[in-house]
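Our preliminary data section would be incomplete without showing what the modeling component actually yields. Below, a chain of 381 amino acids is followed by its predicted structure, encoded as tokens that our downstream tools consume directly.
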Amino acid sequence: MAPEATLVLVAPAPFKGALSAPDAARAIAAGCRLVPGVRTEAVPVADGGEGTLDALVSGLGGHVRAFPTTDPLGRPIEGAVGLAPGGFGVVELARASGYERLTADERDPERTSSYGTGTLIRAALDLGVRTLVVGVGGSATNDGGLGLALALGARAVDGDGRVLEGVGADLARVARLDLAGLDPRLAATDVRVACDVTSPFTGPSGATHVFGPQKGADAAACARLEAGMTRFAEVLGGATGTDPRGIARAGAAGGVAGGLAAIAAARLLPGAELVLDAVGFAGRLRRADLCVTGEGGLDAQSLTGKAPFAVAAAAGDAGVPCVALCGRVDLGPGRVRDAGFVAALPIGRTPRPVPDALAETERDLAAAGAALAGLWRAPVR
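Predicted structure:
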């Protein structure tokens, strides 16, 4: 009598520089299905950064609409809003205000703004969303959400009454934030911010000092930005009654998370857990025999709330074995097991230059999926 079919739940994060999470899931699933008796269910995942929009739209059976917006320096670009049934919308900050929108010599958080992300939020409100997820990873900004607030109808002026444009350097100059023109639809919208970091708004472990240098700020610029964030927190608190310095994760995306918490009463949530909850991951696990996740590189950072770790934790709670397929595995076997994985396997079969490895990721994932499914289905003798 033939054994019952094995259901493999395929839940990878993006393989940065190579494949989106949905494309990675398709490759792994295609490989798994080459083995007789294996069925698959693809559930791409993300943690609030790159790929969050794709993962939620895919997992919820939605679609993507393109909208004009601006990049971190105010140049016109095309952005996107994800839409799913039930009035559910997704905006991914990185698609408008992300550091990958800029060349290395353009990155300067005193000159950049989250205005473009606010434009996309306004577009989502125009489409009638009632629940809005904003994924805030990968930002090029350190403006505390000031630019975003201006795009949504707020007005900021300095001590001489001059209107500010909302870049990072403006934070220290803000004397008053006028919210009379703020889009009233925000108050009727359940705004959830998918955070990929836990940084506070200000302080030594806050948005500026930890992530400012990665965005192009030198020590002097970080000092000015930190002073500006402190000033803007005071102004936000006075205008909204909510001081972002008292909110966990408010420093995500250079303070955009804290700005949204203040002006839109947004909930700041761990991004990976938010995505898994939204797509009903726990319920899907109950039907699975094996869970396969993965990302480009599995390392110590993966254990700090990244999507594959969250997948492994959920699988462990459900009693489902979880295996990670990765471009690179930088954790020893003990740490892999402690993280909840049965195994973490590199997909590369031979050493090769990084560009070649990236180009062959899809093929390697399919081959790894087939090998893993074959081993899982192999009879015990």
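The chain has a mean pLDDT of 94. The radius of gyration is 22 Å. Preliminary results of this kind motivate Aim 1 of the renewal.
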